[in-house]
Structure formats: C-alpha cells, structure tokens
Amino acid sequence: MTNQEFEKFCKKTVAEYTNKHLDKTDCKQITEDDVYIVWMCKILQNHKALVSTTVTDGMYYEITYNGDKNEYYFDAYKKWENICIK
C-alpha cells in the first residue's frame, strides 16, 4: 500500500464515520475535502495516521494499517479538557 492510497482510505473512512455521527438536525454532511491528516508515518509494511476534520466537534481519529494481516484499526477520540500543569 502506498502513502497516497492510505491517505485516501483515511479521508474516506473519517468522512463516512463523521457523516454517520453528525446530529441530523444540523443538516450537514462533509466530504473528503473536509478531512485532513495531522500526522502520518509508515514503518516497514505498516501505516499510522492521526486525522481530523473541519467540524468543530473536538473529535480526532487514529487509523492504523497492519500490513502483515491486511487489517485496518480505527479509533475515534474526543478531547475533553486541556489543562496546564506546572
């Protein structure tokens, strides 16, 4: 799998997931153009990406591709707080 194929998969997956979980009363749907890669790496046959969207819902996503098993793992996270500890 190339980096471009993995990036396309990530954007498509996050757009579909977000559209399924948006509040129906907002009458809004996003496209892959509203999804962006925050960080991505490839080590050997494996890929990992941190992904977000232009939706202001505090969500971010982690997608991992296990090249040995040809499996994807999808995690969705919500930021609850940002606290400075000195």
Describe the structure.
With 86 residues, this protein is of the alpha+beta class. It contains one helix and four strands. The chain has one helix spanning 3-21, and strands at 35-43, 46-53, 59-66, 71-78. A four-stranded antiparallel sheet has the order 1-2-3-4. Strand 3 and strand 4 (71-78) form a beta hairpin. The protein is globular, with a radius of gyration of 14 Å.
If you average the pLDDT, what whole number results?
Answer: 94
Please report which band the strand proportion falls in: under 5%, 5-15%, 15-25%, 25-35%, 35-45% or over 45%.
35-45%
Helix proportion range: 10-25%
Oligomeric status = single chain
Radius of gyration: 14 Å
- Strands, total number: 4
The backbone outline, from C-alpha atoms, is globular
Distance between the termini: 43 Å
Task: Report low-confidence residues grouped into runs of 5 or more.
Answer: none
Major beta sheet, strand line-up = 1-2-3-4
Biggest sheet architecture: 4 strands, antiparallel
Summarize the helix and strand pattern as letters.
HEEEE
| Number of helices in the DSSP assignment | 1
SSE-based structural type: alpha+beta
